[in-house]
Specification:
Blueprint lengths: L10 E3 L6 E3 L14 H4 L5 H6 L2 H4 L24 H5 L6 E7 L4 E2 L2 E2 L1 H12 L4 E13 L4 E13 L1
Antiparallel strand pairs: 1-2, 3-7, 4-5, 6-7
Length: 157
């Protein structure tokens, strides 16, 4: 937290833990130190630079709260809602792929019937998603690469 000089000496409550914190008075500026002899002789000035920085001149006296017991858990795993448990949220997620090519019987296309039949078995409450797919495969009977389609059904069961 940062407070301007007008708040020096006053007490405030910590927004995270509720402990009272006394705001320290502003530090008086220190007189600049003379350069060390080794810096003048061509040595390293890193220690002198850090010692004379603004951060090194500010003296802070803040009270750090100490707890007897562990703090509260900030991120908790959400519990399953009752309606989710009732709809079968505890069931495993499963995937079923239905290809158009496997639904053609004796020249009759039964793709829609097979998909509808499976969806009725699963039930609307257990359905997570239906995703269309298109793919190519090598047909052994015709010796050609054929384009086909299907659906991927994600459900709980």
């Amino acid at each position: 937290m940062a407070v301007d000089n007008s708040g020096a000496g006053s007490e405030i409550q910590c927004p995270s833990c509720g402990e009272k914190i006394t705001i320290p008075a502003a530090a008086t500026p220190l007189a600049p130190e003379s350069a060390p002899a080794e810096a003048v002789a061509g040595g390293s000035q890193a220690s002198h630079t850090i010692a004379s920085s603004a951060a090194a001149k500010i003296e802070m006296h803040l009270k750090v709260p100490v707890r007897d017991k562990p703090g509260e858990v900030l991120i908790a795993k959400p519990k399953t809602p009752l309606e989710g448990a009732a709809r079968g949220a505890t069931k495993k997620v499963r995937v079923r792929t239905i290809r158009h090519a496997t639904c053609v019987e004796s020249g009759h296309d039964r793709f829609d019937e097979k998909v509808a039949e499976f969806l009725n078995e699963v039930g609307e409450a257990n359905l997570v998603g239906i995703h269309p797919v298109s793919y190519t495969h090598f047909d052994v009977g015709t010796q050609k690469v054929v384009e086909d389609f299907g659906v991927i059904i994600v459900y709980r069961g």
